[in-house]
Amino acid sequence: MAKLPILEFPDERLRTKAVAVETVDDEVRQLVDDMLETMYDARGIGLAATQIDVHRRVVVMDVSDDNSQPLVLINPRYEPMGEEKEPLSEGCLSIPEYYAEVPRFLKVKLNALDRNGEPYELEADGLLAHCIQHEYDHLEGVLFVDYLSSLKRDRVMRKMQKRHKLMQDA
Questions:
Q1: Residue 124: what pLDDT?
Q2: Vertex 130 angle, CA 126 and 135, to 5°
Q3: What is the mean pLDDT of residues 137-150?
Q4: Complete DSSP assignment for 45-66
Q5: Whole-angstrom Cα Rg for the chain
Q6: Which residue from 93, 81, 117, 88 is spatially nearest to 104, judged by alpha carbons?
Q7: Interior CA angle at 95 toward 114 and 155, to 5°?
Q8: For position 6, what pLDDT does the model report?
Q9: With contact defined as beta carbons under 8 Å apart, do 72 and 39 qualify?
Q10: Shortest CA distance to 153 belongs to which of 85, 92, 87, 106?
Q11: Pairing label, strands 95-105, 58-61
Q12: What are the start-end ranges of the E strands in 45-145?
């Protein structure tokens, strides 16, 4: 397994729409393992392949308190279960140290392939439903700051540009 570098906003590669995985093979399983290691190391609860500059429809997540429930979503699709939305404070490994309230569907039905390419279906609510929608957005080239006003989004972009400059100068 390997820890992979995570792209940070405003990197344009985060805007790339991911393509479907045709076959779940050893290469995809290795990608999943590397993504899980990267996510856990970064203390995240979700990671889309787009965030590590691999533009395939692969997501890993684990919303458990003790990192004991990894979930693999290959070629995920979801549909809202009802119209009700709730705001939840979201963060992102590609936008470190910034959080904002984003309204998401309260409940969703997920269809995806697991690590072995087997299809499964899952109904999710709460944090898991938010995480599914957040990570799915990454596969579409959408970031949670896109739900904010342009003023707030520009402020986050300036903050991230400053962060990158400080890291380069160090």
A1: 98
A2: 150
A3: 96
A4: SEEEGGGGT--BSEEEE--STT
A5: 16
A6: 88
A7: 145
A8: 97
A9: no
A10: 92
A11: unpaired
A12: 46-48, 58-61, 71-80, 85-92, 95-105, 107-113, 119-125
Q: How far apart are CA 47 and CA 28, in angstroms?
A: 15
Catalytic: which of 12, 37, 97, 135?
135
Q: Give 68-79 pLDDT, tens digit per residue.
A: 999 999 999 999
Nearest Cα to Cα of residue 71 among 40, 42, 103: 40
> How far from each other are the two terminal CA atoms of the chain, in whole angstroms?
28
Determine whether 66 is exposed, middle or buried from the number of CB atoms within 10 Å of its CB (0-12, 13-18, 19+). exposed
pTM for this structure?
Answer: 0.95
97 carries an active-site annotation = no
Over residues 88-124, the pLDDT tens digits come to: 999 999 999 899 999 999 999 999 999 999 999 999 9
Name the band, by pLDDT with cuts 50, 70 and 90, for residue 12: very high
pLDDT per residue as tens digits for the range 34-57: 999 999 999 999 999 999 999 999
- Rounded to whole angstroms, how far apart are CA atoms 156 and 160? 6
List, in order, residues 6 or more apart from 155 with CB less than 8 Å away: none
